[in-house]
Write a structure and sequence with these properties.
Elements lengths: L1 H35 L1 H35 L5 H18 L3 H11 L4 H18 L7 E4 L5 E7 L19
Antiparallel strand pairs: 1-2
Length: 173
């Protein structure tokens, strides 16, 4: 039951963010437009989008190259996968028109600020995995002997129903 409340809380936070962030973006765009002019604001938003697209493409290539190198050398690509996720999230934020989402997107994409965001993403994923609240995640604990599956299962699982019997006929040819 506590897991459902946690998911509901996250859902409400996301819902409020999806309502509040666009309103804040519109307010900021209007204020910038009043300060520098409407067409200049539009041009600045287009320029940010072009710079962001170029930066995403450049950083994605770098991240993909690092991921391939890690896999070819047999090393676990945790940092590379985290960087790829941050670039993907940052690129998505850069697609949204607005100055605040562009600033956050650039923070996630730039190679010298990405290391600051990396531990935050890793901690969030680790916390979700340890809580068992990842969507579709199933965790099997080990029993006293250390064998997987010997202990109780946590996370979502299907319980067998009483009428899971399929009647049929075996035919030998």
């Amino acid at each position: 039951m506590a897991q459902r409340r946690g998911r509901g809380k996250i859902g409400w936070i996301l819902f409020l963010m999806l309502l509040v962030i666009p309103v804040i973006e519109v307010i900021v765009i209007i204020q910038v437009g009043r300060t520098i002019g409407g067409w200049q604001t539009f041009g600045l938003l287009v320029l940010w989008s072009l710079i962001g697209a170029w930066l995403v493409k450049s950083q994605w290539r770098t991240a993909w190259r690092a991921l391939r190198t890690a896999l070819q050398t047999g090393r676990m690509p945790a940092r590379e996968l985290t960087d790829a996720a941050l670039i993907l999230i940052g690129g998505t934020l850069l697609l949204a028109p607005g100055f605040l989402t562009d600033i956050i997107g650039l923070f996630l994409i730039l190679p010298f600020t990405r290391p600051l965001a990396r531990p935050l993403l890793q901690a969030a994923v680790a916390r979700r995995l340890l809580d068992g609240t990842m969507v579709g995640a199933t965790t099997v604990s080990t029993g006293p002997t250390g064998t997987p599956g010997a202990g109780p299962m946590t996370g979502p699982r299907r319980r067998p129903a009483q009428d899971d019997v399929i009647e049929g006929e075996i035919v030998d040819d």
